[in-house]
Amino acid sequence: MIVKYFSTGQRPQRRWRTAFTAIRFLRTISHFANKVPKETSVSHFAIDISSNDHDTPYHVFSHLNDVARKTLINMVKEKSIELLNELGGVQRVATILGSNVKEGISDCENDLLHRRNVFGANTYPKPPRRTFLGFSLAALKGSTMIILLVCAVLSLGFSFEQQSESKHGYSRWYDDVSNIVAVFLVVALCAGANFWLSNESREVSYASDDIKVQVVRNGRHFLVSIFDIVVGDVVSLRIGDKIPANGLLLEGFCLQVEESNNGGELDNIISVDVSRNPFLLSGAKVIDGLGFMIVTSVGMDTLWGEIMSSANIDLEETPLQESLHKLTSCIGKAGLAVAMMIFMVLLFNNTQKSFSEMLRAMVGFLNSSMTVLNLAIPEGLPLAVTLTLAYSMKRMKDENVMARKLSSFETMASVTTICSNKTGTLTLNQMKVAELWIGEEAFGGGSLIEIEPGVSKLLKEGLALNNTCIVGEQNAGSTLEISGSPTEKAILEWGATCLGMDIKEIKQDCQVIDVKAFNSERKRSGILMRKANEKAIHTHWKGGAEIILPMCSYYYERNGTVKDMNGEERMELEAIIERMSAKGLRSIAFGHRKVVEQNDQVYEKLEQSGLTLLGIAGLENPCRLGVKEAINLCKEAKVNVKMITGDNVYTATAVAIECGILNGEEETAKVVVEGEQFRNYSVEERMKRIDRIRVMARSSPLDKLLMVQCLQRKGHVVAVTGNGSSDVPTLTKADVVFSMGIQGTVAAKENADIVMLDDSFTSIARLLSWGRCFLSNIHNFIQFQLTVNIAAFVFNFIAAVYCSEAPLTAAQVLWLNLLVDILGVFAFSTNQPTDDLMRNPPADKQELLISYSMWKNLLVQALYQAAILLTLQLKGSIIFRMTKNVKKTVIFNTFALCQVFNVFNARVSEKNKRLEGIVKNKVFLMAIGGVVFLQVMMVEALNKVANTEKLSLTQWCACIGVAALSWLVGWVCQLKSNACS
């Protein structure tokens, strides 16, 4: 078998040499493995970390050669059970790797470093970062940039033909170079914005990959980064976890993993067990069961590492960016057509000239056409979107929100319904047992209770063994170290405090035979266990009280008496559960059944009926601070909030009232529904009631999915929160997906658009405001940019045809483009969310990119500016008694100042609060000040570069006064709009 294993693609001598090396490796393994006694399988599914066995030779792996290490790597990759058996089994491999199956490896830094040096780190080479030059070349390939560049080069070529007339030729050459510089400046700005956004996206990508993994080192449990895993580590696996590296299962119950990421097949679900298939591959997801694994290879020695190292992290293009690129391209093509038309008209009007004169004139005509084209194309639109995305992503990271998909910012502006989990999102997820009922007698949750020893012992066994928490060393006087789900952690802490439970002692005296782990469908967990020196088999179930109570036929009283659960007694217990739930407590019941084995018959069945009720615990989980205000904010924003939970109707209703989803005066039957009830509605009834339902209790993942689908069919844009792997089907269907950064599983995070690092609903409300702010900023910039483009296009077209030359030079056009981009980016990209935005209804997802009100505002402004500029062009010399060059400077100066005033109009398109939030936006104020200063310099100091003349104080006042009227025009226009609405 070994010869066959190493024979692929090698010469016969080399094959035998390799096989001989492998045999030596096997003998080496046997030699060292025999020094350590074989360890029996662990009797319960939490590793006993109190073992004092420190005799494991931790550095045996140092003697392994390359062939031996590759043998281990390939054994797991190829899932070779034959080779594993020859190596002596899983526990022998653990020994050779210097790991103790109970205590893991040493947490000494030198040991960890040595393992990384020998076996490698659990990282992979990052995909090559896209350079600034790469983004520049990509921006230069755009059709708009190609049109501008080709036209500029052609114009430059004609200018060189005319250099014999030095002064005139030099001026034209200077203008043409300005056109080329304009193209490359725009390219540099777009490349810089994309480069920044790419870096932000890479940081988010790597942050989302840096998940925490629970490992055992020196007998203690630690949460470490997945990148810090080393070969030999013992790793804890639970539902929803991602396998962090290749390895072998040490122990586990009902463990199932999905290997679709590695195998390429969808729903490739594989059962993993110690005897038949202990192999675990990096990147697979745990979908059921629990267990512990030992790591045998990491990083690039795993298929997952190879896949991740070859994956490229490219910027996704959001739908809005795609729409803007199409808009810019269409405007560019239209601008090119009009520029050609201007060129042909000018050429036709000068046909009577000689050829040499005609050639000289063509340079001017082409330059005029280029000027019109430069002003007509809104190349700043994609730039604004990119910068706004980068800025929003950075700001949201500061507010504990990590956006994995850029398009989620756009979609958040259109969200009409948020379907939220209860536990951990609306509540603090810091549970504690508030009360316990044994039969019909209540006990407080914070002090020692005295019950019959037999009942107490059974309850302790159920609490300690039917639990997936990791428990640390429990010494006298020391704090109990528990990590795991908040519910189970609260129950264990209560058991240790109020029942005097010694978890270590219970686990030593009992052997767990089978486990049914809790999941969202089962809503309960169970174990089958046997006590030492006893032939009886015990079944323990724990779960929601409404789930466990129907499984019980009897119940214990405080004194240990077992009573039948007849109709009257059952109703009383149900009433107790209702009273607990009405107080907002989550009721957890514990059931037990004992079966005596006869005639040495092996009994391996978890009974699900005929149980005896041990007790019912009520857990309190208060709402988060600020969640009620956040939900009220969502209501003001016309966004419905629905709570979907696995708790019963009474608990769900109480929590919904406390956090503000329900007001307490509504008829519960109309707004609260159970998952099964909702599922059994007819399609018509479901669609009729979906809008009114605000709480769904006792829901399954399929109920949650059904609600999302119904809402979407009703036209809603739905955002959903998800924590577990069972939520994945719903997460793939929702419009926006939130995952919790603390309690969320890896499967949920990987399917999420946005990860809430603090697990709080208040972060969702903040993101809602930022999404609306993002879309509003983009719409405002579109309005501002197109106003400039249309005004410049109309003015230059008429002036060029009427006067046979463009009134603005290429250098002036270059400055105007930069001015518009600078003002637009800093005025709109850095805008903060306002209260007015949250009072508006959600944006219509099907709404056109440019709405009717936007068209109206921008056309009014554009026509005003074009009319003013044409008046100055045609009658300016007469009105203001100025020379031709001064007139051109006045036109240029007035047009630039119009944009400074118009930016205030565009900032708030539907309200008359143009100065709202400006004082807080210091970046915008600095941009305004900088633009005004540079404009003064262009006119007064850089005359040669800008082809301008110095203006008198009167002329400056005239320019400012005419430009300021654009503010008044916008204000009157919006007053009429508000009056009509």
TrEMBL record:
**EC number of this enzyme:** 7.2.2.10
The cross-references to Pfam families, in alphabetical order and at most eight, read: Cation_ATPase (PF13246), Cation_ATPase_C (PF00689), Cation_ATPase_N (PF00690), E1-E2_ATPase (PF00122)
Q: Note the topology in the membrane.
A: Multi-pass membrane protein
* Broad EC category: translocase
From what organism does this protein derive? Erythroxylum novogranatense
Annotated Cation-transporting P-type ATPase C-terminal domain residues: 806-972
Please provide the record's keywords in A-Z order.
Answer: ATP-binding, Calcium, Calcium transport, Calmodulin-binding, Ion transport, Magnesium, Membrane, Metal-binding, Nucleotide-binding, Transmembrane, Transmembrane helix, Transport
Enumerate the catalysed reactions.
Answer: Ca(2+)(in) + ATP + H2O = Ca(2+)(out) + ADP + phosphate + H(+)
Classification via InterPro entries: ATPase_P-typ_cation-transptr_C (IPR006068), ATPase_P-typ_cation-transptr_N (IPR004014), ATPase_P-typ_cyto_dom_N (IPR023299), ATPase_P-typ_TM_dom_sf (IPR023298), ATPase_P-typ_transduc_dom_A_sf (IPR008250), ATPase_P-type_domA (IPR059000), HAD-like_sf (IPR036412), HAD_sf (IPR023214)
Q: Where in the cell is it found?
A: Membrane
Q: Which residues form the Cation-transporting P-type ATPase N-terminal domain?
A: 87-155
GO cellular component terms listed in the entry, alphabetical order: plasma membrane
User: What is the name listed in the Swiss-Prot or TrEMBL entry for this protein?
Assistant: Calcium-transporting ATPase
| Stretches that traverse the bilayer | 132-157, 177-197, 330-348, 782-803, 810-829, 849-872, 923-941, 953-973
| Entry-linked SUPFAM superfamilies | Calcium ATPase, transduction domain A, Calcium ATPase, transmembrane domain M, HAD-like, Metal cation-transporting ATPase, ATP-binding domain N
Q: Which family does it belong to?
A: Belongs to the cation transport ATPase (P-type) (TC 3.A.3) family. Type IIB subfamily.
- What PANTHER family does the record tag this protein with? CALCIUM-TRANSPORTING ATPASE, CATION TRANSPORTING ATPASE
